[in-house]
Amino acid sequence: MREPNYVEGDATDPIGDGPRIIAHVCNDIGAWGKGIVRAISRRWPEPEREFRRWHGEPTFRLGAVQLVPVAPHLWVANMVGQHGITTRRGLRTDAGYAVDAGPPVRYEAIRECLGTLATHARTERASVHMPRIGCGLAGGTWAEVEPLIRETLCAQDVPTVVYDLNT
Questions:
Q1: Beta bridge mates, 35
Q2: Domain that includes residue 115, residue range
Q3: Contact present, 76 and 37 (Cβ < 8 Å)
Q4: Radius of gyration from C-alpha coordinates of the chain
């Protein structure tokens, strides 16, 4: 089993050679515009355009993954791993607002996404690059997410790089 590699840097500028997948967590209400997606959209228009097109289709759900090619041997993985978004009014979902509903992160959905991603990465012989997914706007904790990465990507021997942004 591989260990995740931790580096300082920008996950949207993945290190190394060969096929690479940039993974990030999305919400299930089709909102796009905060967190790492801003950096993704500055580099490539395709992931946002495809995410917005995908939202509303039957395959769009918690736990689903959309791989979007952005360059030869480079993909962005839109992983639906959070239910709603957090706003000043509370948790916003398709059904409205729920104050004090807890963070939007859904660990089981992230686990499912990472399992699917491991299959894609092995098929393409790709490494996976990500920020500390699910721990920013989604409100999750790394103590919960890191084991999911180890149980899925690392257990499948997929090279995995976790980026901490230089600040």
A1: none
A2: 5-164
A3: no
A4: 15
For the chain, how long is the longest CA-to-CA vector?
A: 45
Burial 76-100 (b: 16+ CB within 10 A, else e): bbbbbbbbbbbeeeebbbeeeeeee
Q: How long is the chain?
A: 167
For the CA atoms of 54, 69, 24, 66, the dihedral, rounded to the nearest 10 degrees, stands at 30
* CA–CA separation, 121 and 87 (whole Å): 34
CATH number of the CATH domain containing 87: 3.40.220.10
Q: What is the pLDDT of residues 27-43, one digit of tens each?
A: 999 999 899 999 999 99
What pLDDT does 94 receive? Answer: 76
Give how many domains the chain has, as a whole number: 1
